[in-house]
Amino acid sequence: MHNLGGTRSSQQANHLLLTPDTxxxxxxxxxxxxxxxxxxGPALGAKFTEYTAEFEARGELGCTPSQRFIFVxxxxxxxxxxxxxxxxxxxxxxxxxxGLKHRVVATxxxxxxxxxxxxxxLDSLPPxxxxxxxxxxxxSHPLGDDPSLQVKCLLPxxxxxxxxxxxxxxxxxxxxxxxxxHVMEHGLIMLEGGGIYRLGDSWYPVTVGDFIWMGPWxxxxxxxxxxxxxxxxIYKNWNRHPSAGL
Length: 246
Ligand code: UGY
Ligand code: MN
Prior knowledge:
The chain is mainly β. The chain has strands spanning about 10, 15-20, 25, 30-40, 50-60, 65-75, 75-80, 85-90, 90-95, 105, 110-115, 130-135, 140-145, 145-155, 165-170, 185-190, 195-200, 200-205, 210-215, 220-225, 230-235. The chain starts with 9 loop residues before the first strand and ends in a 9-residue tail after the last strand.
């Protein structure tokens, strides 16, 4: 359905909304029986790359020169490090430090969010180690003093990590308490429900399956609408001086 050229997708100077009707699939080097919907990357000015990998059963991801974070949206994959496999089911995730040889092979038809970013080392600290976990094993905390907005930090609160990935769950009718404007950029995948996202000077209806990139200082606000909670997976650069890497 061409919808007469209409779409909710929008590309602006400091933000991007991508809706599934505009997704284009590609194959990245090393992928087998797997394709990537590249959501954002350096071509747009982002300092990270995020894509959804869609696997056939026994499909495989290629390798990356960067550190990598994977989150299983649907299905299941085997992560192999040093010949040892770990089974990752829905909501499982892994942090793979830069240079760690690994394989990600789907055990069934799967969708996996993939975030890759060149590591910004600190002289004072060694880089982080491999993490394999599941969102269900992480406890949540309210954002500010609002219990209707719960956050789970999937990576430890340690300076060694130069990015954070969180899930945020909004009960219907709840919202961010302020319009945020901050140095960090975001990559966001709507996992459940929907609502209204303010990005820059526009307000967008958003729903499960959408992707959003917010550039540094992009004004942002979200309110959950509907009968089910809204949930998203959100990346941000973190723990580094704003001038680092210049
Ligand atoms: O972590 C964050 O900056 C988060 N509160 N931003 C957002 O949800 N748009
Ligand atoms: Mn934010």
